[in-house]
Amino acid sequence: MAERADRPELPVDVRSGGSAGSHAVLVEAVLDALPLPTVLLDADGRILLANTAWTVATEFLEDPRLQVGVGDDYHEMALSLRDDLRTRILIQQLQELGRGERETVTFDYALPHRNDARWYHLQASRVDQAGQVVVTHTDITSRVQAEQTSAWQARHDHLTDLPNRAHLHELISAELLRPDRGPVSVLFMDVDGFKDVNDTLGHEVGDQLLRELARRLSKRTRSEDTVGRLGGDEFVVLCRDCDVDGALRLAERFQSTFEDPFDLAGEVVTGLSVSIGVATADAGQVRSTDLVRDADLAMYAAKAAGRNRVRVFSPELRDAVEQKVLVGAELREAIADGQLVLHYQPVMSLPSGAISGVEALVRWRHPTRGLLQPGEFLPLAEHNGLIVPLTRWVLGEATRQAAAWEQAGLPLVAGVNISAAHFGTGTLVADVHDALTAAGLAPERLVLELTETSVAEDPLRAAAQFAQLRVAGVEVSIDDFGSGFSSLSQLVSIPAGVLKLDRSLIAYTAARRSEAAAAIAAVVGLAGACGMRSLAEGVETAEQLQLVTELGCTYAQGFHIGRPMPVDELDAWLEEQRLAGTQPGAASADDLQRA
Ligand code: C2E
Ligand code: MG
Ligand code: MG
User: For labelling alongside 226, which of 211, 303, 494, 496 has CA 20 to 30 A away?
Assistant: First the structure.
C-alpha cells in the first residue's frame, strides 16, 4: 500500500499557527507513531494518510481488496469487502461524522484470514472543521475469541463437549416453536450402575466412561438429532421431527451400544446397561422443561422396572408419581402426628426357650387406609428422605419401651431395624446415643439390625460406625443373611455380634429337610467362626424350631413362637408364657452377654 503519485491535499489547520506543509508533516508523523492501523479520510472518504501500522496490518491479512492507500476510496473498499446494510450504515455514519452531525462512529467487524477470521473494532473521530475523519482499527480477535469460548463453555459440558442442560433446553424450546415440523421426541438416559464404576474403578475411569458414551451416542444419532449431557450419568437426546416409534428405534440402538465392552485406559468394563425414558410432543403443546421432565419420569419408571429398559411417558405415569409424592407428604405428617406404631415380635433364646428380646417392627395407622405394613410405606420413606426421621422415632419409642420393661422386671433386648440410608447421613451414632440417653436405657439392651446389602453400599463407612456403636456397648446384628448375595469376606470385616438367618433358609419343604439342615448348619458354623451368635428368622413350625435348636442356633424368631404384637398384647402374651412355665424375662446372663 505505497503512497500514490496523485497524492491529494494533506490536511491543514490541525492546530493553529505554522504553515500548512509543516502541519501535514506533523500529522503524518503523529499518525505514523500510532501503533493502531489508522487512516485519515477527507469528507468524501478518500484516504489522505495511512500509517505504517495500516500497511503492516493489511499486508498481514493478504486480501487484495484491503491493499489500498493514499488517494483510494475508503468507503468503496469497505463495500468491496461486504456490500450489505451494515456497511452502508457505517459509510453513512462516517459521512455524518465528516459533516459534524455526530461525535464518533464505532463498528465491529470480522475479516476472513486464512481459514479463520480476525475481528476489528473501528473507531472514527472528526479531526477538524474541514470534515477530515481519523479512523483507527483495533484488532480485537483475542477478546472476541475469549468471549466466544466462554459463551460456548457456558452452553456446553466441559467433560464431553456436549450441549449442557441450559443449552439443551434452548434447543428443545426452539424446536417446540416450529409448527412446520413433526413431533419432537426427547430420550432421557441414565446409565445403570454408574455409581459402581465410579466407586470401584475411580472417578477418572468414570469420566472416561462418560466421554466414551458421549462419543458412542453421538455416533448412533442422525445428524439432525442432538445429544446432550444433563450432568452425572444423565444424557438427553433431542430427536427432531421424530415420533414415538422413531424414538424407540433410537433407544434400541443406544441400548445396543452398551453391548460392546468399554476399554477405559486398560480397564475393560462390560455388563453396563442404560435405562431410557421417552417423551414425545407436537410443537406448541408443551414447554421444554415439561417434555424433559416427562422423559425423566419415564426413565425413572424404566429403572424401577429393572435395568436395561425403555419406557414411554404416559399421563398415568405422572399420576402415579404425583400419588407417591402425596403419600410422601402424608407420611411426613404421620411421623410427627404419632400415627406410627411399633409392634414387637418375641425372640426366643435357645435352647432354654426363654424370651430374651423383641424386634421392633413399625406400622402406620393410616387415618383412612387402616394399619399399613412396612412394605407399603418404607420404600416411600426411603424415596422421600424420611427414613432417618422415621428411624429416629422408632429408636426413641423402642428404647423408651425397653426401659419400661426393664423397670417392670423384664430385661428384654430390643432390636431396631436400621436402613442403609442412615449410614450415609453420618448421624446414626448420635441418633442412637440420643435415644438411649433420653430413655435411660443401658446400651446392652439395644440391637441394631442391618441388612447385609445396606452394609455393602459403603462398607468402610458402615464398619467405622459399627465400631463406634460397639465401643459404646450397642450390639449390631446382620439381618436377612442368606437372602441376597452374601459376601462372606464382608461378614468377617463387620464387627457384628449376631447373624440373623433369613427365613428363606428356614422355610424348607419336608423333602429337602436334609439339604436345608446342611445349609443352616453351615451358616451357624460360619457365624460361630466369626465370633457371632446366630438367630433363625421365620420359624413357623415346631419342627423348624427343633431343627434350628439342634443345629446350634442361639436364638429363634417366627410366627411359631409369636407374631409381631402391639405392646399390650405382647405384655399379655408374656404373662401367658410365664404362667405356662416359659419364664419370660428370665433370660440367663449368658443370653444377654455380648459376643
Ligand atoms: P425384618 O427385619 O426381617 O423383619 C422380620 C419380618 O418378618 C417382619 O415383617 C415379620 O413380621 C416377618 N416375620 C416374622 N416371623 C415370620 C414368620 O414366621 N414367617 C413369615 N413369613 N414372616 C415372619 P414386617 O413387620 O412386615 O417387616 C418387614 C421388614 O420391614 C422388616 O424385615 C424390616 O426390614 C423392615 N422394617 C420393619 N420395621 C422397620 C423399622 O422400624 N425400620 C426399618 N428401617 N425397617 C423396618
Ligand atoms: Mg429385622
Ligand atoms: Mg429379617
Answer: 303
